[in-house]
Design a protein that fits this description.
alpha+beta; Aldehyde Oxidoreductase, domain 3; Molybdopterin biosynthesis moea protein, domain 2; transferase; 6-stranded mixed sheet; magnesium; MoaB/Mog_dom; 11 helices; Molybdenum Cofactor Biosythetic Enzyme, Chain A
Amino acid sequence: MQEVRTKDAVGHVLCHDITQIVRGGVKDAVFRKGHVVREEDIPVLLSIGKEHLYVWEQVEGMLHENEAAEILREIAQGSHMRATLPKEGKIELIAEIPGLLKIDKERLHQLNALGELMIATIPSGMVVKEGDKLCGTRVIPLVIEEEKMLAAKALMGDKPLLELLPLKKVKYGVITTGSEVFKGRIKDTFTPVLVDKMAAFGCELKSHRILDDNHEEITSTIQEMLAEGVELVLCTGGMSVDPDDKTPLAIKNTGAEIVSYGAPVLPGAMFMLAYTKEQTPILGLPGCVMYAKKTIFDLVLPLLLAGIPVTKEWLASLGDGGLCQNCEVCHFPNCTFWKGV
């Protein structure tokens, strides 16, 4: 940092904010730290009493905060993201498409532990819209050793810290089970809920069947839907442990690999997930999905659409925070019930 006369400061980079106070309570920076002084700035600076300025002195081996921020941006930025222009050592990454954000949390922690630089993100696993902010990068000092930034880049390797995974708009099938619905005693109110939830992600209902509590018919119908090319099968009803609840047995008899029958989540404990050999998911959805605001289905669905395998280990991890508070005003996913990846 060096002191120069304001009249001689053109082309130099400010080391601090220049604040202007206006009568009536307005106090703000007229020029920000990192601003490159222009000829037209000189009268403004003189008018607020700045005869001398502290500017950045170019030193070999040192990077200005904005140059260093570009290195952080390169470390963080994956596909389907755009970067803002550097400002005061900060660059933000913005989603260019709707998708699910996946962050390498271990490497992110390693980077932030280095000191003097940081990347702050929204939570990994968050579903975002086009234009949503994903992260901000910042270099703490005005200047930082180039060697430190290059070491950070080498430590992080070539794979970006952030991935924005597109959400596939799948064609899905729904199998509604239960003699009470099959025989017309009650109306099917489950399928409309699923259609609404799936439509929010742009997914299309390809096939819907209402069946009696016959596990052989349920199994064969699942197989028929798979043969028709559905990319996700949702089975509703018959998911409890009552003797006449046949859906878990029907899913098992398709030959699909069972990931889990049951999950440490309320609402949603009686959830079932299986994958076919072709990795098509088959879900057994408990009745709570029909009436509760948010359930296990809302936690799992974005991962399935993003192509992230849902594992038994991940499902087991949901117990910590897996109790929905059933708030009068639902703030999901900005709540303790939401789970990332």
